[in-house]
Structure formats: structure tokens, C-alpha cells
Amino acid sequence: KLVLLVFRVLCLACLWPVTLLDNRYPDRKKNKDVYLGEHAKHKFKGRIDYKLKRKDSTKSLLIKTEQLLRIEDHDFAMRPGFGGSAIPVGIDVQVESIDSISEVDMDFTMTLYLRHYWKDERLAFPSTNNLSRTFDGRLVKKIWKPDVFFVHSKRSFIHDTTMENIMLRVYPDGNILYSVRITVTSLCSMDFSRFPLDTQNCSLELESYAYNENDLMLYWKNGNDSLRTDEIALSQFFIEEFHPSHGLALYSSTGWYNRLYINFILRRHIFFFMLQTYFPTMLMVVLSWVSFWIDRRAVPARVSFGITTVLTMSTIITGVSASMPQVSYVKAVDIYLWTSFLFVFLSVIEYAAVNYFTTKVEMKKLKQLKLSEFDASQAMAFDGCFHDTDIELSTFPPMSYLNSDPCMTSLNSAVPDLPRIMGTRLRRRRSIRQSVNHIMSNSYKIDSYSRIFFPVAYIFFNFIYWSIYS
Q1: Closest to 94 measured CA to CA, from 155, 169, 145, 165
Q2: Name one GO molecular function term (predicted).
Q3: Torsion of CA 49, 50, 56, 61, to 10 degrees
Q4: At 175, which helix (H) or strand (E)?
């Protein structure tokens, strides 16, 4: 009892200064109570958070996933089944859109969903309900995946809005689905020999970069059904066919590689070029024929028609060439444009010939008119006879007069009589030179012939052209 009494006295002695301070400073006592309340509150809250943490399985999910998939226990820098047979990797593609096709750069841009299927037993995990687990790009960086790339690609990127468009799905038995959304710009070797009536065959090629056929075997997951497309509409092309194929590619230093092809055939719409190229060209050629119906003496009118059509055709040819690649062979549109340009140019040359022949004939008539002013007696020779080089044909006297003329009598006596053939009439064929001289002396007939020849020749050219290229 004495010891208990002494202990109580000591406790009171210790608490007495604190009581005096609380009584003298009441704010201190209030702050102390607040501090003790906050401490109790935080302690209680910590107990609640601990209980919620035990019930919520998403807390530190990444750590649980890595432990479940045993990522830290394996070296994922090596492919599955290293040292054994080649690992099969199935490919499945869904084409979302063909964004652009460039004839100048000879390439195309495509957006697609690229899916890979393979099995990695290192990622197998126990599961009671046999459900798969889906992850995003954060886990993809820690495991092995096929290094598929696009052959002949110029640019490509993975969409990353709002996050990287990457999906990883792991099944309990180790089967893996890896999907990624990609936009790629790839080379397409186009043949423009039939442009714009052409059909282009382009392909997107997939291949493993590091693993040859001894380590990795690429194949289409579902055969021809592995390539699916959405509704695709292009401005200048019509997609005739989409089909997958496969093959092998040989590199002399690394060996054979499996290669997959996404082939699609594009047929160009002709209506745009009919409106922009062919119809204007036809109109310019027809317009050049109008000059054939204009009088050949109207020089300003016919020259204006010729120069206008020639310059317009030059503008059309320049515009088409600027929108096309500089290839070393002749295109179908070049044949049509330059042939049409030739028709327009020949119409200008035709008028130049008509004007030249007309001027020459008029000068000849003017010269003959001057000669007719001289006295006919001055053109007589010493024998008293007129010569063909000195007088016109219209001045010859009738045949009865020629027979009585002594000059003609002497000429006729020098020629022996030829036997006459009854019932026949001899007609001398006109030589080429005489035909040319006849046309030159009648230059107005050139326009008459051109009105028929030019349209018939151009229609015949169009018939041959569209029969070959359409």
C-alpha cells in the first residue's frame, strides 16, 4: 500500500504542471484535442484504405500481371522455341482505307489493321475460367513479338491518338493476338503506256526483318479470308480485286525469307479525262476545220483560226505532261494529243499552201495580162509563124484555118500518116506533174478536198485509237 501511494503522488506531481498550463492557456488545450482527433482520423482512414486495397484487384495490376505471366523469369529477347523448328506466325489484315494514289511519285498510302497470331508457352498462365487477358502497348515492350516490316515502304507510322493503337491479348494456353493500326506509304511500280485507259496492279509486301524461314514462318491465318476490306471509294480509280498471296524472297547474305503480298487491282475512271483532255482536244481539231469554209483571200480570219487552235493544243499538252511522271516511253494520251496536234498543224499548213498557190496563179495571170498588151506582130518569128511560147492557147485559129495555113501544112507534111483504129478513142493519162500543176492552177480545190479528207482521216484515227486502248 505504501508503494502504491508513493506512485500516485509521483503521477500527480508530474501532471500538475501540465494542468496549470492548460488552465492558464486554454488555446493550447484546444489545439491538443484537435491534434488527437486528426491523429485518430488518419489512423481510421488508413484502416479503410487497407480494406479497400484488399478487395480491389486492380491495385498494382502491372506487378500482378508480370508475376502471373512470369515475365521476369524468361529472356524475351529470344524467340519462342529457340533452337527448334521455325515458329509459325499467322497474319490477318483488315484494310480500312486507301488514302491516296500518286502517279507522280508512283506510290500509294494505305491505313490497315495488322494482326499477328503466334504461341509463346512462356506466357501461359493458370486460369479457372479459361478467359484471355487484354493489355495495351505498355506490356508489349516487355515480351517477344514478330519483327514484321513493309517491303518497299517509304513512310509508315503507328497511330497514337489518344494512345498508341496497340492491342495485346494473351490466352491461358500461351496463344497470343497482337494487333496494331498502321498507315503506310509504299512504292507501286506503275505502267503508264495505256494511260489514262490503264489498269494498275499494286501490292503491299510483309516480311520478317531478322528471322529467315528457319526461325519464323509467316502465313495467312485464314487463307484468302485473311484479307478483309471496308467500303473503299476512290476519286480516280475503281478497285476491281483484293487478294492475298505468298512467296519467298532471297537475300544473298542472309538467306530465304517468307513474304506475304496484299495485291489489289485498280482501274482508272476515264470520264474525268474525257472532260478534261479528250473532249477539248476534239473541239480544237474540229475548230481548225472551220477555216476550210472561209474564203482563201480572208487571210486574217484563217490565220487567227490556225494560231488559236495551235496555241490551245500546246496548252493542253503542257497541262497533261505537268501532272504525269517523266517516263521514257510514250503514253496513250500522248499519242492522241500529238496526233490531234498534227491535224491542227496540217490545217495551218494547208492554208499556207492554198495562199501560196493562189498568189502564184494571180502573178502568172498578171504577167500574161502585161504580155497581151504588146502587138501580136511583134511576137512573129522570121518564118512568119506564131509560136506556142509567145501566144495564149485561146488565140489559136480554128482547125480549118490551120489546115490552110502554109506553116501548118509544112509541119503536117513532115509527120507520116498514122493508121486509124475504128471504134477506139485514145486518151492520154495525166502525169503527176501535170496533176500538181492542175491543182496549183486551181488552188480553191484544195479547200474542197480538205473538207472531206481531214474529217474522214480524224474519224478513222479515233476508230483505231479507241479500238486498241479501250
Answers
A1: 165
A2: transmembrane signaling receptor activity
A3: 110
A4: strand 175-187
